[in-house]
Amino acid sequence: MGTGAGIGAAMVLGGPKETKTDVAETCPEPEGAGAAEPSAAPPNTADIAASETDSEYVKINNQFFVPVVDNERVVATVILSLDLEVAPGTSDPIFTMIPRLRDAFLRVLFDHANAGNFGVGYTENASLDLLRRNLLSVAQGIGGQTIRRVLITEIARQGA
After folding, report:
1. The pTM is what?
2. Exposed / middle / buried, residue 112 (Cβ in 10 Å: 0-12, 13-18, 19+)
3. Could you tell me how far CA 92 lies from the centroid of its own chain?
């Protein structure tokens, strides 16, 4: 009830009004700014949005379970979910390749684990970037350049 009263009070009394100020009004123009070349202009936000949405995503159902072995004993299990970013119009053919992709991904994941990369720092950027590059390499070997990225959508380590 206290939260509802607080929300109601905020609605009646209103909060501080935001005012937008044009940056050009408050910041002096840097030296030589008038001589900027057209190529130095910031990118068009519509172009950026179009390039970011110019992809489709293929969800790889079922998680990957990777044993982490130390001294011939399983000490942990890493669980991952992967998705693929693909070129528009190519998701249907990629779906037919999922069994081969899963097999190739498992080989990469096992190699990654056997090299000790699922140890204590397994979530460090360098380790995950190496894994993404290797996964993408085998994915493109199967599905070609239509596969743009392998996305690690979930990762967890269970065990010691």
Report:
1. 0.67
2. buried
3. 22
